[in-house]
Amino acid sequence: MNDQSPSNDWPIKAYNNIDFLNSSDARHIRILAELAEPQKRLREMGIENTIVFFGSARIPDSNIARERLAVAEQEAAEGKPGDEALAQRLRVARRHVRAAPFHDKAIELARLLAEWSKTIAEREKRFYICTGGGDGMMRAANHGAYLADMPSVGLGISLPFEPELNPYIPHNLQFEFHYFMIRKYWFSYLAKAMVVTPGGFGTMDELFELMTLIQTHKIEKHMPIVLLGSEFWNDIINFQSFVDWGVISEQDLGLFRIMDDVEEARDWIVEELTTHYLRPVSDDPGV
User: Fold this and answer.
1) Quick one: pLDDT at residue 6?
2) Residues near 75 by Cβ (< 8 Å), separated by ≥ 6?
3) Could you report the per-residue pLDDT of 78-109, keeping only the tens digit for each?
4) Which SUPFAM superfamilies does the entry mention (predicted)?
5) What domains appear along the chain, each with residue ranges and CATH number?
6) By CB neighbour count within 10 A (0-12 exposed, 13-18 middle, 19+ buried), where does 286 fall?
7) What pTM does this model have?
C-alpha cells in the first residue's frame, strides 16, 4: 500500500535545484559556468586583450610599509624583552619595507601602459590591465590603471585570507572564481603581455605554467614577459642554472626579460604589442 499523500507541488527544475548545483555531481556544470559567464561579460565590455600583472598579495606600498614598520618598532621597544610574536612582526615589517618599492613600480608601470592603451583608436584593440584582484601587487596594478582613468580586470578567487577584491576594479569587471584552473585559463586566454612582480608560491606557479605553455607551443601567440625587479629575481631563481644542467635550452631564456626601469619596461612591452598586434599585416610577401 502506498503511504504517500497526494501532492500538487510541481517538481524543481534541475537548473533551479541548488542542492544539485552545489553537489559533486554538478561540478562539471559549475566549471562550465566559470568559463561561460566571464566570456559573456568580457565580450559585452569589448575586452579582447589584457596585460596581466602577477605578484604577491602581501606587499604594501612604501608609505604603508614604513608606517607599519614604525608601529612594529614601537611595539617591540615597549614590549616584553624576548617576545617572539613582536620580534616576528618586526622582521616581517622590515621585509615589507625592502619589497615595497616594487609595489610603487607596479603602480607606475600599470599607469603608463594604461595611458598608452587609451591612445589606441579602435577600442576593441586596446589592452586592459588584468590582475588576480587581490591586495599587494595586484592592487598596485589595478591602482595604476585607475590613475590612468582606464578600467581594469580583477580575476579573484575565493580564499579565506583574501575576503574581497581591491577597490580599484570596476564592479562589472570583478570576477570571483572557485576553480584555480579556470581562473588560470582566463589569465592566459586574453593575455598579450605579462608583468611578474615579486611574489610567492602562487606567483611562481602562474609564471612557470605560462612559460611552459609558451615553451611547448600550447600558447602560440606572441607574449612578452617582464620580470620586474632584478634584485628579487636574481636572488630567488638562477635561471642560467636550468641551462647549465641541461633541463632547458639557451633559447628558453629568451621567453622573458628581467627589468628594473619602469619606462624601459613600458617601452619594450609597447613595442612588442604594437609590432605583433597593432601594425597591419602586409599582403606583400617581400615585406
Assistant:
1) 66
2) 86, 89, 90
3) 887 888 988 899 999 999 999 999 999 999 99
4) MCP/YpsA-like (SSF102405)
5) 45-61+101-278 (3.40.50.450)
6) exposed
7) 0.90
